[in-house]
Amino acid sequence: MDFTKLNPDFNALGRLDYSKPVIDTKNTIALIALVAAVLSVVFVFLPWFSVKVSMFGQSESASRLGITTWYGIIGLIMALTAVAGVLYKQYALAFWAAVICVVLGFIGWLSYASLTMDGRTATADDIKLAANFGAVTIGHLGAILFFFSSAIAAVCSLLMATGRKIDVNLR
């Protein structure tokens, strides 16, 4: 495998005609990469951290969208970069942007965030402590979906950047 193909060509980025993005419907791998990268953009707007507290037959829940965290904001920028990389056939750039998204999705998957419920703010440490005692249910749905869609975009972009051919017939 020629790893030099994974170096983004920044000179080519300056020469691109940005008014003409290309959606290659005949290239299944590129199409999968595009769909996965677009889904990564969408998943930033889902809850990356949610808490559900159930006591005495009552339940309260609160969540925090990915876009409200530092790793979600960077994830949005990198996911948009991956989309642009696929649309303009800059697969090395799309690959590295998607790899960064995978790392940020993993951070989001493992992180705790502070939340406000009924005017009270619970710190991340308080929530982690409550989770250790089983008093709350923690969810990371958006971060998990972001992680997996970014991983798919990264693998497909890697295949496209290195010129690997895989016969995928979805018909």
Number of beta strands: 5
Oligomer description: single chain
Number of helices: 6
Catalogue the unreliable spans: none
Largest sheet: 3 strands, antiparallel
Order of helices and strands: HHEEHHEEHEH
Q: Kindly, what is the distance between the CA atoms of the first and last residues, rounded to a whole number of angstroms?
A: 29 Å
Fraction in helix: 40-55%
| Anisotropy-based shape | elongated
Rg estimate, integer Å: 19 Å
SS-based structural class?
A: alpha+beta
Strand content bin = 15-25%
What do the pLDDT scores average to? 86
What order do the strands of the largest sheet run in, or round the barrel if closed?
2-1-5
Description:
53% of the residues lie in helices and 16% in strands. The protein contains six helices and five strands, in the order ααββααββαβα. The strands form two sheets. It has a three-stranded antiparallel beta sheet with strand order 2-1-5. A two-stranded antiparallel sheet has the order 3-4. Helix 2 packs antiparallel against helix 6 (141-162).
